[in-house]
Amino acid sequence: MNPDASATIKAIYTKRSSTYESASQSSFHFRQAQEYIQRANLEPGQSVLDLACGTGLVTIPAKQHVGPTGRVVGIDFSDGMLEVARRKTSEQGLDISYIEHDITDLGQLDLGSFEVITCASALLLMPNPLHAVKHWASLLFPRGRLLTDVVIERSLIAHTILTHIGPEVGRALIGDRSWVKSEDSLKELFTDAGLVVEEVYESEGYETREYRVEDGAEVFEQSMFRKLGDVEIKEKAKELFVERFREMADQDGVVREEVRFYTGIARKEF
Q: What is the per-residue pLDDT across 89-123, written as a single tens digit (0 to 9) for each?
């Protein structure tokens, strides 16, 4: 990952860590984590690698499913997020290994192989999604499965806008979403990475939101990118954000979004 982009995203998530868990209980992150666990069909004794594990919303339930004979590893580059995950894990008396590391390149780690790898809400943060998926696939056992997702168009509008305005403020504020056109985009990514597609589907609507056109500045301030440390960049980003937000409003002055993802499951054949 580009050092500047990596540092920006890491700082944002670390600053969110103290409140991320409480916010997640009423947001799409919690519901998405539940869906991941349901779709993973985990069994006792299996090994699971949870990439961009954050506060453990997928990691901890995964361990509960694979039990004491199973192995679960969570990796995230935010020490703040991992601190929360480790505390929750300790409180529940679970045995999970957490590693602070950039998930774009795990070659320096001696991780072994896994039967299931999950990566929720982070694939689009990767500068090269194909390279990332190929790399992750190398950590799967034969017949092992990868679960990951990409956000659909007009979902997470703040992220959509920030993707477009990043170059205008001289900073990659979030990963490129331009390659995501439909479910087929994720299928092609899996296939190009040498994986066999088991399923790609459009998730349920985790949240539905409506905003007035004049709410643009407030929406920016509520997004995670409000915590950009550079004041000059933040103000420029906010100005551009409000402009793009206004352009997305319908004739009634309303901006609508429904939080949905294309979620995919693919396996390593050999």
A: 999 999 999 999 999 999 999 999 999 999 999 99
For residues 64 and 79, what is the distance between their CA atoms, to the nearest angstrom?
23
Helix (H) / strand (E) element for 100: namely strand 97-100
Other CB atoms within a 10 A radius of the CB of residue 231 amount to 8
- Identity of residue 232: E
Q: What is the residue type of 85?
A: A
Rounded to the nearest 5°, which phi and psi values hold at 143? 75, 5
Q: What's the maximum distance between 2 C-alpha atoms anywhere in the chain? A: 58
Closest CA to 62 of 37, 29, 93, 96: 37
CA–CA gap between residue 258 and residue 206 (Å, rounded): 7
* Distance separating alpha carbons of residues 97 and 67, to the nearest angstrom: 14
Residue 257: both structure tokens together: 């979004």
Would the pTM count as exceeding 0.70? yes
Q: What percent of the chain has pLDDT over 70?
A: 86
Listed in sequence order, the residues at least 6 apart from 258 whose beta carbon sits closer than 8 Å to its beta carbon are 154, 155, 205, 207, 208, 209
Q: Decide: 53 and 75 in contact? Cβ < 8 Å.
A: yes
